[in-house]
Automatic annotation (TrEMBL):
InterPro entries per UniProt: Nucleotide-bd_a/b_plait_sf, PABP_1234, RBD_domain_sf, RRM2_I_PABPs, RRM_dom, RRM_euk-type
Location of the protein in the cell: Cytoplasm; Nucleus
Gene Ontology cellular component list: cytoplasm; nucleus
Keywords for this protein: Cytoplasm, Nucleus, Repeat, RNA-binding
Molecular function (Gene Ontology), one example: RNA binding
Domain RRM residues, every copy: 12-90, 100-177, 191-268, 294-371
Source organism (scientific name): Phaseolus vulgaris
Domain of life: Eukaryota
Protein name stated in the entry: RRM domain-containing protein
């Protein structure tokens, strides 16, 4: 890929994925140090545990070096693991949209990342290819290919879907995010049946004899434990989808042995979880609508109050459908709970009757219960304008510093390119206090530093007086920060 001379010196950033968890910043730098315009690298880590997230970024001063790094390092080995190197996409919407992303399954075990890349590269510019593997590196039989354009992805799907690659017929289709996948309808064709409620003495021969009357059975298996005993469920796979549907309709609920069989279409774990989640959400929404305006939030409840006592207190206002005192893992009351009435009128009566009343020597706070999202919206409406007035007009601030990248002896190069500002005259013991600079302009000249070494109370360090001026420290225009000495303790006059 040729790069115009006008953009040859433009900075470029690459994403490096599938890293070994023990790789450090310096080791990642050493892996890419052959490229002369390399400026910085970073291995991304968990903010709390500091463990590697197994991906990072490599930054160059030259796009030509970045392009060459992709060609040389993509699908190469680093610490015994095959790494993926591609252009960094900072826009999260572009990454999550799935544009140009292709899903491939039924892959042969011998196909790796490089093999998948070679298979698809003739249909367009491939940005990334990945075969999903187990912990031991063995392929799971499916993967993903990211094209630069949606047109290339569609072309690859048209040409490769249903084709045979290394004696296996592969499936190639558009990648669909898990949350966007639709549930199978009633007209879905299937051949595999799930059967449960089997007696322990039911054998595969008996099951074969019973279910083969509906059509040709390709395979049949009863799930068994480590001792060879039946787990009470089995799978029957038919050759014809129509035979499978007939068997399901005829055998579901029919007595076989001492129990009534449950027969349904076999489902993958992800599909079952999606269906259960969908059913749970539907019931949850129905319950919310049913109890809207009738559910009360009660707080400041004494730790010794039981649900029975709470029910007895509020029962004079109407019919109570449920009472719940919230408790922690040890069973100790959290000091709040919920009382649900049969209708909103009874709930409003309870609020007006018992709000602020003393119960076990504590005044109760009672209000109509709200969902978390509704509470947040209400708080923004109530306190948003006040907070905006306190914050004052917004001021554009240039961030004074860089993220924790690894910069190995490239300071002079970055200073020349304008990527890094050197603090003026800052010695050891000075730090940025993250104070937003005032809106008035400053001259871009060196500011003398006159630290205040007077010792005062530690808790007063960093406070501002009524006119908004720091009593100690210095403002650095290039970094848009105030700096103050670490060993000084500053005391300010009250307004």
């Amino acid at each position: 890929m040729a790069v115009p001379a006008t953009v040859a010196a433009a900075p470029a950033s690459l994403y490096v994925g599938d890293l070994h968890p023990d790789i450090s910043d310096s080791q990642l730098y050493q892996a890419f140090q052959e490229f002369k315009s390399l400026t910085s690298v970073r291995v991304c880590r968990d903010s709390l545990t500091r463990t590697s997230l197994r991906y990072g970024y490599v930054n160059f001063m030259s796009q030509q070096d970045a392009i060459r790094a992709i060609k040389v390092k993509n699908n190469s080995y680093l610490f015994g693991k095959v790494i993926r190197v591609m252009w960094s996409h900072r826009d999260p919407n572009a990454r999550k949209s799935g544009r140009g992303n292709v899903f491939v399954k039924n892959l042969a075990e011998s196909i790796d990342n490089a093999g998948l890349h070679d298979l698809f590269q003739k249909y367009g510019n491939v940005l990334s290819s990945k075969v999903v593997v187990y912990e031991d590196g063995k392929s799971k039989g499916y993967g993903f290919v990211q094209f630069e354009s949606e047109e290339s992805a569609n072309y690859a799907i048209e040409k490769l879907n249903g084709s045979t690659v290394r004696d296996k017929q592969i499936y190639v289709g558009k990648f669909v995010r898990k949350g966007d996948r639709t549930l199978p309808g009633n007209d879905t064709k299937f051949t595999n049946l799930y059967i449960k409620n089997l007696d322990s003495d039911i054998t595969e021969a008996l099951l074969q004899e019973k279910f083969s009357s509906f059509g040709e059975v390709i395979s049949l298996a009863i799930a068994k434990d480590a001792n060879g005993l039946s787990k009470g469920f089995a799978f029957v796979n038919y050759d014809n989808p129509d035979d499978a549907r007939k068997a399901m309709e005829a055998m579901n609920g029919l007595q076989f042995g001492s129990k009534n069989l449950y027969v349904a279409r076999a489902q993958k774990k992800a599909e079952r979880e999606q269906i259960l989640h969908h059913e749970f959400e539907e019931k949850r929404k129905e319950q919310i609508l049913k109890s809207k305006g009738s559910n009360l939030y009660v707080k400041n409840i004494d730790d010794g109050v039981s649900e029975k006592e709470l029910r007895d207190l509020f029962s004079s206002c109407g019919t109570i459908t449920s009472v719940k005192v919230m408790r922690n893992d040890k069973g100790i009351s959290k000091g709040f709970g919920f009382v649900c009435f049969s209708n909103p009128e009874e709930a409003n009566k309870a609020v007006s009757t018992f709000y602020g009343c003393m119960f076990h020597h504590k005044p109760l706070y009672i209000a109509i219960a709200q969902r978390k999202e509704d509470r947040k919206t209400q708080l923004k409406l109530n306190y948003g304008p006040q907070q905006a007035g306190l914050d004052g007009p917004s001021t554009a601030v240039v961030r004074g510093g860089f993220p924790s990248y690894f910069y190995p002896n490239v300071t002079s190069q970055m200073l020349q390119s304008g990527l890094l500002y050197q603090p003026l005259g800052l010695g050891s013991g000075w730090r940025a206090n993250d104070f937003t600079p005032p809106t008035r302009s400053f001259q871009q000249s060196q500011v003398p530093i006159v630290p205040n070494t007077t010792r005062h109370h530690r808790q007063n360090r960093g406070r501002m007086n009524s006119v908004g001026k720091a009593q100690s420290g210095v403002y650095i225009p290039q970094l848009q920060h105030y700096y103050q000495p670490m060993d000084s303790r500053v005391e300010y006059m009250a307004a």
